[in-house]
Amino acid sequence: MNFFNLLKIALRALNRNKLRAVLTMLGIIIGIAAVICMLAIGQGSKDSIKAQISEMGSNMIMIHPGNMQRGGVRQSSDDMQTLKVADYEALRDRTAYLSAVSPVVSSSGQLVVGNNNWPSSIYGVTPEYLDIRKLSVEDGEMFTEADIKSAAKVCVVGKTVVDNLFPNGENPIGKVVRFGKIPFTIIGVLKSKGTNSMGMDQDDVVIAPYTTVMKRILAVDYLGQIYASALSEELTPEATEEITDLLRSNHRLTGDEEDNFSIRSQQELSEMMNSTSDMMTVLLTCIAFISLLVGGIGIMNMMYVSVTERTREIGLRMSIGARGIDILLQFLIEAIIISVTGGLIGVIVGCGATWLVTVLAGWPTSILATSIILSFAVCTVTGIFFGWVPAMKASNLDPIEAIRYE
Amino acid sequence: MEKREIIQVRDLRRNFKVGGETVHALRGVSFTIREGEFVTIMGTSGSGKSTLLNTLGCLDTPTSGDYILDGVSVRDMSKNDRARLRNRKIGFVFQNYNLLPKTSAIENVELPLLYNSGVSAKERHERAVKALIAVGLGDRLNHKSNQMSGGQQQRVAIARALVNDPVIILADEATGNLDTRTSFSVLVLFQELYARGRTIIFVTHNPELSAYSSRNIVLRDGKIISDTYNEAPASAQEMLDSLPVNDD
Fold first, then answer.
1. Do B101 and A403 touch (CB under 8 A)?
2. Do B114 and A1 touch (CB under 8 A)?
């Protein structure tokens, strides 16, 4: 008996009981659609987190003064002054895993231009800060190393600052803005980045040479933070280790003395956020697979009923020459047809549901080819697995008894 | 010239274990059936005729004794080989027709050939049409089994038994579910097949039917108690013509 004939026999048998076949299929359809939809939602949220993080610079490393891992214990101000310019210079000159390093010193205050004023923050950095934070200058230019050396009173401002200080749309380049008592010449405008994932306006900034901010505004000799970029996201752990070693030796920390600085990388943050979304994905997928399992049990149930109902048919087929394997394959193929057809419709329904989720709820989704292949494989296996036992039962029937079964 | 021996049965015994007891369904049955015979096997229930039919139909194997079907010994055959033998050499006709429900006559008749991979789809169809014409249903090829009368259904079943061109047709109470008139019309069909040289074994408990066959074997308690040849079988057609016609 060739495969084509078997397929024909199975299709005819299913055709005789369409409604039941469709209802059984429904279980698989819902299961597969749920798996695809859940995986798509999970993948979508993962992708959007990843996009947000890489927008901030996925290989960014932040070094803060003091040790943040002391829980509720208040830290002395000495602890907060542990990062010096020398540390920055050491990191800039003596590391192998960093592509960019910038000190950050910041101050908040009122910006004033003519009659307009706007509260904002000024960040003292080096030009490499742009690479680290994935910023770029849209109009004008960035300040230079020479400006840093001379602690020049120049700055680059964000879009929000421009909009508030120059409401009439004048060109801000070359204008002078006062920060406290210090006048800065605007030499560039940053390209807009919009709000970040935490809802913070990333365009509400002023950046200036760190030397200017340290000397002319804050009058301090320590740094607020140091930002750096690892060569790649994967090399972040090596870079972190290198920074730790270098800073410990710079700070003359020996043995079991605790670090008086702390390092946080964007990678840790992304891992943390990913693990949350991974957990959600696993949870949702588990539920989806359970519904697939229930669908599979539905197939098994239907096949059992079908075998009992068609005992005489099985007896007849055997008496006119069907072997056990022919009967086994017939019922197995019926089960597989139901599960694969259900799977196929399930994929379509799942894709449709995913699209609806995106359109109606506005959630980010992403359907992976692997999730479609996976669910297809799962439903074929489901068909074989749950079809096997009833099919075995059918093929082991005694034709003499089966043919006289009432 | 002696006709070919289709069935040879020698000292056939079949025991069943029921609970702790052994039931002897067949206690040494021997006979030979040659090509072209129309044999009725008769007996009351419990006489062993069903067991004999199952054995002759290769559905069951004897406990001891030999069964040779068309030159092949069935006794030591595997299940699959017996299935193959049934497919190629035997045509079954059952009391309750056993047609596939909601399936057309032609598909029902094609069924045995589906299990024979040597037959192409085209040949399958042609042979099924031929078999249906032979039983007088040439105009009902696509009628579904549930749209047909009992007599028509049994004719489809007979066509299904003929389609693989078997060496023997085994009928198990083939007229048992039919009214007298329809019974005789089916019997007429069997006699026509007999006239065309088919070998037929017709198992029944109805003694009237023995008059229409060429040979009659009677079983009782697992043994043959009589085996008689009937030189001039009665004509089922004459009997049918003499019956009053029911138009309801």
1. no
2. yes
